[in-house]
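HOLO CASE FILE
Compound: pyridoxal-5'-phosphate
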Amino acid sequence: MIWARAEGCRVWDADGREYLDLSGGFGVAALGHRNPRVMSAIASAPVAHALGDLADAAVTAELREKLPWPSKLGVTGADAVDIALRTALLATGRPGVVAFDGAYHGTGLLALAATGFEQFREPFAAWLPGPIHRRPYGEDPGPLPADTCCVIAEPVQGRAGARVPPDGWLETLRRRCDEVGALLVVDAIYAGLGRIGELWPGENLADVICAGKALGGGLPLSAALFVRRDLSTVWELGPEDVLTHTHVGSPLACAAALVVLDEVPGLLERVGVAGRRFEEAGWHGAGLLRARVGDADAAERRGVIVIPAGDGGLISATPPLTITDEELDEAFGLLGL
Ligand SMILES: Cc1ncc(COP(=O)(O)O)c(C=O)c1O
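Model generated. Tokens follow.
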């Protein structure tokens, strides 16, 4: 299926067929596709591209100010994870990472090493960094190995099929990290920015929060946020930024992100209400990060876009946070729920 047009919660294919998009484009379109404020911020941006780490555009500097903690920006979600894990190495001098089964952190080699999906890892196994200590998601990992620089965890696992850990699990991870002086990295790339009803999940426990997906309002932008503020200083390694990208801090993406940060807090209540509608229709998960048994191809034939999740047999829904009750009625009706 080729997307010819996308607007709000709806997508049209090249033949003009209309779909209700429960994927939100992998959870990116928190404010809906082509949100008018986002589109206008992009269209009126006075700088389209600046000089990456050498010279921020004014709007990039403004975004850095608006983010609640010091940050290091990236382009993809995997970049934010990469920054977070390297921060832990720089801060502790130790290489070990504790990560979980079912984790998805991206496909760059460092993020891939922490990812728990064998089909993504196996072809590149010879090149994966480590050591990675894999533990069951949602369980106490026990005393951490002495070489651990950080634990990385999703507050709710997205790609594994909206897996919600037991209450207090992040607190347990915090305690385990404190026992050995390791950092707690919360990968909120999928779950963050309102998707599970909180702007910054784990903010009271994490040392670093990773954000991506929804952050750029549809343009590629990610950030590692140093909740433990002093961690930003580990990157003072010399005159040049030694971890950067040509498009870092893209002014267009930052202009869009300012709209996202402004709008999402006003949608948190609605996420709770819409999330309960999913619950009643048999979807598990949290907020608007949902999954249930189903077939994505069959859903597409009925005019609803969902994403296959987990080991197969599950479909996931991560719609715009702006989805209305009427759109939910329509989507559940089309799916026969
Ligand atoms: C929790 C989580 N972390 C990281 C990533 C990687 O983001 P990206 O695909 O933008 O590199 C994803 C992508 O789905 C994700 O769900």
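CASE NOTES: The mean pLDDT is 98. The pocket of pyridoxal-5'-phosphate is lined by residues 26, 76-78, 81, 104-106, 154, 158-159, 187, 189-190, 212 (CB under 6 Å).
CLOSED: yes
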